[in-house]
Amino acid sequence: MTDLTCDVAVIGAGTAGLAAERSARKAGATTLLIDPAFNGTTCATVGCMPSKLLIAAARTAHEARNAGALGIRTQVDIDGPAVMRRLRDLRDDFVSATRAGIDRLPDGVRITGRAHFTGPDRLALGDGRSIRAGAIVIATGSSPMIPPPYRDLPHHLLTNETIFELRDLPKSLAVVGAGPIGLELAQAMARLGVRVALFDHSDRLGGVRCDDVHDALKRTLARDMDLHLGSDPAPSVQDGTLRIDWGTGAETFDKVLVATGRPPDIAGLNLAATGLALNDRGMPDIDPESLQCGDAAIFVAGDANAVRPLLHEASDEGATAGRNAVSYPAVSRPDREVPLAITFTDPPLVTVGAAPARSDAIGRADYTNQGRARVENRNVGLARIYAAAPGGRLTGADLYCPGADHMGHLLALAIGRGLSATDLLALPIYHPTLEEGLKPALRDICKAVPLKIPADRDTRTPPGA
After folding, report:
1. Taking residues 260-282, what's their average pLDDT?
2. Would you call 240 helix, strand, or coil by DSSP?
C-alpha cells in the first residue's frame, strides 16, 4: 500500500498528542496524528472530569449530612443510579466537545490505526501502510496497572477506566492504592454511603511530603473509611464473593478498585526498532525538559513519559515536543513553571514548588480555627509554606485545607515571580476569606528570616481569621 510521509508524526490523540500535533502544524510542519479510535482524552473519558462529577455528588451529600451544625435539618437519600447516570451524561458531553475538536483537524491529518516502529524514522500501520517522518512524538498515554493477584477477578475488579460505567453504587468497596486516584475515589464513594476500606503497601497516603499535612489527611480519611496502611492485601473469590485478606484481618466486598498506578502505555510500539537504549521497563532515556530521547528525532510527551503525569503538564509537554520535533536537531529546554499538584480530596491536598531545604524558613497556618472555614463548617487541616533564607523568597508549600486548590495557584504564581512572604503580606487580602488564613504562616516566615513588614500596610488579622 502507499507509503505516507510527513515532517512530524504523532502517535496518540490524547491531551499531549493533540497539543503536539497542533504545535507542530502551527510551526509550519506537515503532520500525521495516529490513534486507534480517537475516542477523546483520558481526562474527559476516564480521568479528571468523571472523577470530579463523582466527587461533586459526594461533597453535596457530605455537606447535607453535616448541615445540622448550621441549624438546617435534612435527610440524605443517595440515589445511586441517578448519581451514575448524571456522571455519564455530563462526562459524555465533555467527551463530545473533545471529539468535536478532533473532527476539526485538517483533512489528511488523522490516521486511524495502531502504529509501531520499524526504524528510528519509520512507522508501520496495521493495514500495511508505512510512514516515514522527519520526527516522531510518542504520546500514547498510560494504562492502569493490574497486579497479578487481581487479574483473575473479572467480575469484581474495577479500575479508573471501568468504575464510571457502574449502573449503581456498590454497597462495599475495597480500594487498593492510596495515590491520588485511590484517595479521591475512596473518599467520594465513602461519602456516597459505600462502605470503603483503603489498602496500601506504604504507610504514607498520597505521597504527602509533610508529616503534619499527612497526619491531618489521615485523620480526616479515617472518619470516612477504614485505613489499612502498610498492609499486603490478598484477594480471593469464595462462592462468588470477593474476600480481601491482610495481616490482621479479612473482609468481604462487592467490588475492588485497583488504583496502583498508571504506567506508560508503550506495549506494541516496538521501541527496540528505534535503536535507542532501553531500560528494564522498556523505556528510553528521556530529557525531562526537551522531551527528546537521547539524540534521536523522537520525543515522548504526557503520561507516556511518566515524568509529570498531570493534564496541564501533558498539554505543555505536547506543545514543547511538537516544537522540538519541528526544530530538530536544534531543541529547546524551556524553563518549567512551578510544580503544582492537586489531589481533589475534601479538603484538597496540594503540593506547590519544592520541598523545604534544611535552611528554609517554614510557616504554619492552622485551618481548624480559621474564621471563614469555621463560618462554612469546613474548618479542617493546615497549610505549610516554605521560604529561602535570607530574604524570605517563597519556594514551596504543602496544603490540606479548604480552598487549597485555589490558594495553591496563588502560591505557585508568587513562587514563580520570586515573591517573598513580605511581598504577599503587602498585597490586599480580603476579610473574611480562606486566603486570609495564610497570614500566620507568612508571618512565621517573616519572624524567622527576619524581615520588616512595610509600615504602610496594616497586616493585622481580625479576630478569628
Report:
1. 95
2. coil
